[in-house]
Amino acid sequence: MKVTIHPSQLAGTINVPASKSSMQRACAAALLSNGQTRIINPGHSNDDKAAIEIIKALGAVTKMVNGELIIESRGLNPISNEINAGESGLCVRMFSPLVALSDKATTINGIGSLVTRPMDFFNHVFPKLGVEIKSNGGKLPFIIQGHCRQQILKWMVHSVHNS
To answer: In sequence order, what are the beta bridge partners of 134?
Structure first.
């Protein structure tokens, strides 16, 4: 097949969804907020969907309205004892410390290559903060149960400022 393209003028608007990591971070922030968060033009990748399912399991209520993701949250309030990060390493790294803010034992799981990735740094850091963790030799699944909300919050703030 032959196609001829002629010079022309283009006009219009293109809405580009946020990066997967931005979308996941926005979901985590919305979970920790108290009230309503609106994400305009949210992503629809599998990693984005995993983040949405995680925040729902951790107590947020979500709905799509006119292409916007609306998240209602009263902070961390797990309604499930398991979350699944899909194949998103960022979801595991970001939501594991949030799960540790709860005293409820929660299993963090994943699928595909994520379950083969070493994440044994959690095995070293969490016990220093008083968080119980059981892992599969430093790999998923993890079972996390936190007991010291203030220490974890300090660690998270320190990590953000030093990254």
So the answer is: 143
